[in-house]
Amino acid sequence: MKQVFKQIVIAIITAEAKLLLKRARPTIIGITGNVGKTSTKDAIYTVLKQHVHTRKSQKSFNSDIGVPLSILGLQNGWDSPLLWLRNIVDGAISALFSRNYPEVLVLEMGVDRPGDMKRLCSWVKPDIAVLTRFPDVPSHVEYFGGPDEVAAEKMELVNGLKPDGVVIYNHDDERIRRSLQEVRQQAIGYSRYSQSQFTAGEDVIHYEQGRPVGLQFVVKHIDETVPVTVYGALGVPHVYISAAALAVAAQFAVPLTAAAEALGRNKQTPGRMRLLPGKNDITILDDTYNSSPAAAEQALTALKEITTDGRKIAVLGDMLELGQFSSRAHEHIGKLVPEAADMLVTVGMRSRKTAETALEFGMSEKVVWQYDDIDRAADEIARKLEPGDVVLVKASQGIRAERLVKTILKEPDQAPELLVRQSVMWDKR
């Protein structure tokens, strides 16, 4: 019964969203990939909002129900039939009577299973498609035949482009480059390690009073070079995110200097390599929104590059929805840990493979702790932290690693603003 109700609601709000798009005709920016979708969406919104009336998807609304909610400007009704009925009424009013609708929609568009993107693009036709990254072992791969099938499903976003549309893509990703060979629309690349239309480089960690506070780098476009400072987050993914945002800004004739300045004021997305102050004078690198092999590898690289007088502690939880690739993926991450961290904490059954591999590659048993429960891990870790420690916390959603971050946060009462999954509905789960 619950599933039937859900499908009826999806059908109704999708019909309302279709009608609203037909009436308002906004420019649609669709974003997909396996890494960095939400942060890229937020960065694009940041560089556009002062120049054109823009709306973005809320949080990570990127599914068959999240996309129409974003188009209609509605909130998730969760498990409340009354809230969904209200959404249906409000959606009808918006579809039929709304005025002053945003000129630009920035929509995150994800896939969980085969056919998801094709269904979305049957009615959402983007003017600009932004492709982040298609790694070798993506999240949700257990529902597909392999990484190429995941990439093909996400490429349906490009197949759904309007004839005069533009593709803005990660030029460092070979799988994306191959996928774009037959695309007729204009393709604009951004990159960190290869030459493209928007090439980022010279990235370094920015410190204040001996603590990491963000990233500094430059982005080159034709004969223009602009410096960019990203505060409150670390990692190469944020270099890519900024380069992608600048590439989109150029499509709207936003000066690169103005876009770069806006990125310096951007409030970082919770749970995506966000730097937070912790108890006992520690620094937290909060990457708890979700996890995949590619994202975990980049997070460890960022931890490795940090300079600190304290210890580097990697708290790594299970990476879920990897299917047949799970054991190998956790083993691969375990190989990387000894070079990046002084201590390792794993949470979950699958991550035991990460701990075992880290021990095989040289870590001492004294600095490797294994837990099956996130709350127990949080309590014990909180008692062992020392001033100057830098703690990376990363896991898939199902581990709920944000609970650990809240335990070690300097001011836990700020958790609703700083961390992911802090709503009342999530607390009930």
Level-2 CATH architecture of the largest domain: 3-Layer(aba) Sandwich
Give the CA-CA distance, first to last residue: 21 Å
Name the beta content range: 15-25%
Structural class: alpha/beta
The number of helical runs is 17
CATH topology title of the largest domain: UDP-N-acetylmuramoyl-L-alanine:D-glutamate ligase
What is the H level of CATH, i.e. the homologous superfamily of the largest domain?
Mur-like, catalytic domain
Rg from alpha-carbon coordinates: 21 Å
Largest sheet: 9 strands, mixed
Query: Count the strands?
Result: 15
Shape: globular
What is the helix fraction of residues, given as a range? 25-40%
Going across the biggest sheet, name each strand in turn.
2-3-1-4-5-6-7-8-9
Stretches where pLDDT falls below 50 for ≥5 residues?
none
Average pLDDT for all residues: 94
Instruction: Give the C-level CATH assignment of the largest domain.
Output: Alpha Beta
